[in-house]
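Bumping with the actual sequence this time:
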Amino acid sequence: MNFTTKIPISKANNPISYDSKIVSLGSCFAENMGEKFSYFKFQNTVNPFGIIFNPVSIENLVSRVVNKQKFTEEDIFFHNDLWHCFEVHSELSNPNKEVFLKNLNQLLESTNNQVTQSTHIIITYGTSWVYQNKTSGKIVANCHKVPQSQFEKDILSIETIENSIRNTIDLIRKINPNCSFIFTVSPVRHIKDGFVENQRSKAHLIAALHTTINRQSTTKNYFPSYEIMMDELRDYRFYAEDMLHPSPTAIDYIWKLFFENYIAEENHSTMEEVCNIQKSLLHRPFNPDSENHQKFLTALNQKITKLQQQFPYFKF
């Protein structure tokens, strides 16, 4: 007897390999997947400007990166003892204005290089709900705890999201015409918006994504993270304590389905070797000076050296 419904997942048109260069953008679930890529030693860049949830803010940031439009004093503001930018996450905020601008523009340059060299762009959309600054009229990526009275909250229409996704793809194609795109919708539930409102939000994202992807599916894929969480893992034991975010078990499960379908099969054995090394590195011996432990370390170093000869960028 089956106690779950399996989500059918198509194999990626252009699977990821250890030669691939990946740039991941979007919600906190992009960070979860990025941690898996890093664990298995893929060449991966995750959210250089921090977590961003909505399609328009991702598009705006991609536009700035692609066009190398530098951040200026007009793009930042001082609030609660820190300099912030409405286009990036608060983890980048800084008490020093000059340092903040310098950091943002260095990230701009490095991200442009990473997007230009990437083979795969993975974008995880989190919500259709946005906050528009009343003064500038612009949609913000992060409110930085500025009083809510300074913003208007609204939901992006399906048409607006479609246009934003197409613009994002076209912008990236200007500097990297050959990269592949993988899109997904975050399984994190945004209940602060409301239960019905969260469902509306996810529905708008899914409808817009499928319309866009179906127009040219050879270089664009949809990975059903949200659907796996909602249908295959339909149980609160797969949620973290806040009952909103996927638990580590759920993230592991979704990652397993991802790598089975989106990572080249010839790399699976290397991933297993990397995993074994990672587990060995966490080993804590009872007697570090014992002969057995020294033999263990020697064998481990030999495994690492062998892998690094094949993949020089591996760092353990």
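The tokens above came from a reply further down the thread. The first strand starts at residue 21 and ends at 26.
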